[in-house]
């Protein structure tokens, strides 16, 4: 028994010159070759060469799906808009330019507090030290350890974090 499905192409091919779609692949009798399989709405495909996962079952633009990153207009009104990171605290993921920078598998409360502060401040380049005091460690050393942890074990080293103002704040930078 056949099921009725909404058909949506996942990948399209281009002609050799790239200006128009390529004709479908066909068998010897001229019948288009089609691969059909069932997936759930939670199925995620990551295609080589793609910058962000392509989610099935979603409608609307990639921005509606939370895939793209926000941009900030230049402060002086000139030049290009700046791409901003996205911290998804609920799943412990830091994204930039549609690429996963870091995924937390452990608590890392100090690192998460820094990312929470940046997200809350709409990714201003610098923030004041957001860590609350603990009696067992020097404030500056605690911030340095947290920033060192942010820069460790990144999946894509697109961003870097730095302690600034003699341990009074944190800055983020895009790596070239």
Provide the structure class. alpha+beta
What series of H and E elements makes up the topology?
EEEEEEEHEHEE
Biggest sheet: strands side by side, in what order?
Answer: 5-6-7
Distance between the termini: 54 Å
> Main sheet, how many strands, which sense, barrel?
3 strands, antiparallel
Specify Rg, calculated over alpha carbons: 22 Å
Strand content: 15-25%
Instruction: Give the beta-strand count.
Output: 10
* Gross geometry: elongated
Number of helices: 2
Instruction: Report mean pLDDT, rounded to a whole number.
Output: 74
Helical residues, percent? 10-25%
Low-confidence stretches: 5-15, 46-65
Quick take:
This protein has 176 residues and is α+β, with helices and mostly antiparallel strands. It contains two helices and ten strands; from the N terminus they run βββββββαβαββ. The strands form four sheets. It has a three-stranded antiparallel β-sheet with strand order 5-6-7, with helices on one face. Strands 8-10-9 form a three-stranded antiparallel β-sheet.
């Amino acid at each position: 028994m056949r099921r009725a499905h909404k058909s949506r192409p996942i990948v399209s091919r281009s002609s050799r010159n790239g200006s128009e779609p390529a004709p479908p692949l066909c068998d010897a009798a001229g019948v288009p070759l089609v691969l059909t399989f069932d997936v759930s709405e939670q199925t995620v495909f990551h295609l080589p060469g793609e910058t962000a996962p392509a989610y099935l079952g979603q409608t609307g633009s990639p921005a509606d799906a939370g895939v793209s990153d926000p941009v900030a207009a230049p402060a002086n009104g000139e030049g290009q808009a700046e791409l901003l990171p996205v911290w998804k605290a609920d799943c412990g993921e830091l994204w930039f330019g549609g690429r996963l920078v870091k995924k937390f598998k452990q608590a890392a409360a100090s690192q998460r507090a820094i990312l929470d502060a940046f997200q809350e401040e709409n990714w201003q380049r610098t923030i004041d030290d957001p860590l609350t005091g603990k009696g067992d460690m020097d404030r500056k050393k605690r911030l340095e350890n947290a920033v060192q942890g942010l820069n460790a074990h990144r999946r894509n080293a697109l961003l870097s974090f730095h302690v600034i103002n003699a341990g009074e704040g944190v800055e983020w930078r895009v790596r070239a």
